[in-house]
Each structure stands twice: as C-alpha cells, then as structure tokens.
Predict the structure.
Amino acid sequence: MTKKAIITPQEAVNLALAVLLDKYREHFIGIYLDARLKAKKAILISLGSLNASIVHPREVFRPAICSASASIILLHNHPSGDTEPSTDDLAVTKRLEQAGAILGIELVDHIIFTATGKFYSMKSEKIIK
C-alpha cells in the first residue's frame, strides 16, 4: 500500500481521510502494518451513526491475522468536530490493546480525528503504552 513507514499520527490521519466515506457518520478504520510500520492495507472496520460506532476485537484483528500484520493503528472520526475521547472510546481502546497483546499484534495508536484533519492521539497522550 505504501513504501513509507507511518511514523506520525498525522500520516495515519491522512490515510484515514482517504477511507472516510461520509463525514456525518462515525467510521472506525484500521491501518494494518508490517514489521517496519509500512501500511499493508487500510480498511473500514465499522460504519456507525452520528455519535456511535460498534466495534469488536474480532472484527479489528481478523484482517491483521489474515494479512500477517505485525501491528495496527486504529482511527475513528468524530463528526461533531470534537477530538476529545469519550468514556466508551477509552474503554474500547483498553480492550483492544489487551486483545492485541494476547494475539501478539501491537496496537500502535488509536487516533480520533475530524473531517478537517484535527486529531487526538491516544499514544501521544500516554493512554496507550
């Protein structure tokens, strides 16, 4: 997918914006990476409503296992334009981080972004180790 490693949250957001179908619904996107942090693929995992998206570890990690990905970056948009994580966002992130640890697939970051490109990186904010 890309020859360049995804190093910064902004690079991940730029890829996610290309997958965004409509800015009025939540999109939960996975970027699946090889061992050198190069994107193997970016897919829409879940398409939600205006303020919610249902996501389960099995849907997040199935593409990672099938593509032999070493790690993943997760992103979802907030149509409201507010990048601050909700209580549910934080709980889902911890659950997915734990599932990844069990599977040996590192959760590199979970980023909340807006259609304008503003973002909140849970890795940068030390929510993810």
Q: What stands out?
A: The radius of gyration is 13 Å. Helices lie at 9-19, 57-66, 87-103. The mean pLDDT is 91. The longest helix spans residues 87-103.
